[in-house]
Amino acid sequence: MNVGIDGIEIRTGRLKLDLPGTFAPAKGEDPGKYTKGLGLHVSALPDAYEDIVTMAANASRRLLERKNVSPADIGRIDVATESAFDNSKPVSTYVAGCLEQVFDGDFTHANKGERKFACVSGTQVLDDAFNWVRAGRSRGRAALVVATDTALYARDDPGEATQGAGAVAMLVDRDPDLVSFGDAQGIGSVDETDFLKPNQQFPSVDGKRSMQVYLARMREALQDFARNGGDIHPDTFSLVPFHTPFPGMVRKAAALGFRHSIRDTSVEDRLADQIGRQPRPEAFDDHEAYLDGIKSYTDELRQTTTYEEWYERTVEPTLDIAREVGNWYSGSVHVARTAGLKHAFETDRALTGKNLLVASYGSGAQAEIHAETVQPGWRDEIAQLNIDEQLDRRYDLTFEEYEAIHDVHNHDETTDLEPFTTPTEEFVFDGWGRMGERKYTYVE
Ligand code: CAA
Asked: Rounded to an integer, what distance in angstroms lies between the CA atom of residue 359 and that of residue 328?
C-alpha cells in the first residue's frame, strides 16, 4: 500500500527578528556568528495573539481547504509539540475546536492525541499515522498531523540565537500527492540530558554537548537504517532533509553522514588518489589517534569537489527556509523537506520517483532515519505553498520590541502588549476561560 504525505502547509509566526542586523549588535556580537557560523539570518516569532494552537490551526485550515477535505474525512488528529501548555488536554483538541468554527461538520470520530519526544516527535506522529493507515484502521479517512512549536529560550541563554516559531500541517493518506514512505527505518536512541524542560517553559541546555549528542545519535540511526535494508549510497538520494536547529549544525552532520555512506564504495575508491582512504579503527591501537585520523579525513573530504557537489545538490536547498525562520523544533525537519522540494520546483528539477533520505532528531535523545519517494503530484502541491508571501509580510522587530514580545510569551510574566500586526482571516488567541483553558476566535 502506497502511504505518505498527501499535502503540506507551513505557517510562520508573524514577527521577525533580524539576527545579524538587530540581535547581534544589541548583544555586542559579530554578525558573522549568525550569517557564517550558525547560518541563520532571521528568527520567526509569534505576535501577541499567536501561539502553538493558532499556528497549527491556521496551517491546518489552509491545508484542508486546499485539499477539499472535510472534518468527516479525517480519522485522526495528532499534534507534535514541545511547547504544550497543558499536561492533560492535548493541543489537538484545541486545533479541532478551532477548525470546527469554520468548517461544516465536526471531528467527533477522529482519534486525537499529542506526541512528545522533543523535535523528533514531529516525525513520530507521521510514523503513527503511516502505521494506522497501513494497519487498515483508517476506514478510508486521512490523518491530520501537525508539528507546532514556539522555540523560545530564556533571555541571554546561548540558545536565544536559534529561536523560532511556526507550524507544519500534513495530511497522511493512501496514494499521496507529495511523498510516500519507505518501510526501512533506522533509530539511534539513548537516555541523555543535553536539552530538557523539566516542568519549565524554557529549556535547560548544554549547547555544545547537544551538538555532539545530535551527531552521535544520527550516526547510530544511519547504521541501523543500513542494517535494516536501507540503501545509504549518496547517489540514491536527490535531497537529504535534516532536523535543522540551525544550518551550521546540518553542515557538520552532512559531512559525517557522507563520509559514513561512501565507506567501501566506488566513491571512496575514486577519492583515494586525492585524500587517501578513510581510517579504519582496527588500524589504530589508540582510539584517540583513530578519532584524530577520521577528523582530518573528514576535513579533507569536505574540500573535495565530489562532496561539495553532493552537498550543493542534496542538502543546501533544504536550508533555504530555516535560514529565514530559525528552529521550529518538531516542525524543523518538515520545513527542510519542504524547502528542498520548493527549490527543486523553482529550478525545474525532475523529482518524480526520486528518493529523499529524511534525518530527524530530538534531544533527550533520539534520531530517526527513513526514505521517502517523491510522487507524481509533487509539483502541484509545492506550487500552492504561500510561504514566501508569509515571510515577506512579517513585522520587523526592533530589539526593544523583541524584548517586549519575549515577555508576552513568557508564562512567568504578565505583560500586556498591543500586537504589531493586524490579524485577518485567521485564528487568534482570545484570552482564558473559567477553568484556565485558552480560547480562540476566527477573525474575518
Ligand atoms: N564569523 C564566522 N563564524 C563565527 C563567528 C564569526 N564572526 N563567530 C562565531 N562563529 C562560529 C563559531 O565558530 C561556531 O561555529 P563552529 O561550531 O563550527 O565552531 C558558530 O559560529 C557558533 O558560535 P558559538 O559556538 O560561539 O555560539 P554559542 O556559544 O553562542 O552557541 C549553540 C551556539 C551551542 C548552538 C547555542 O546557540 C545553543 O545552545 N543552541 C541551542 C541548542 C541547539 O540548538 N543544539 C543543536 C543540537 S540539539 C538539537 O538539534 C535539538 C534542538 O532542536 C534544540
From this structure: 15
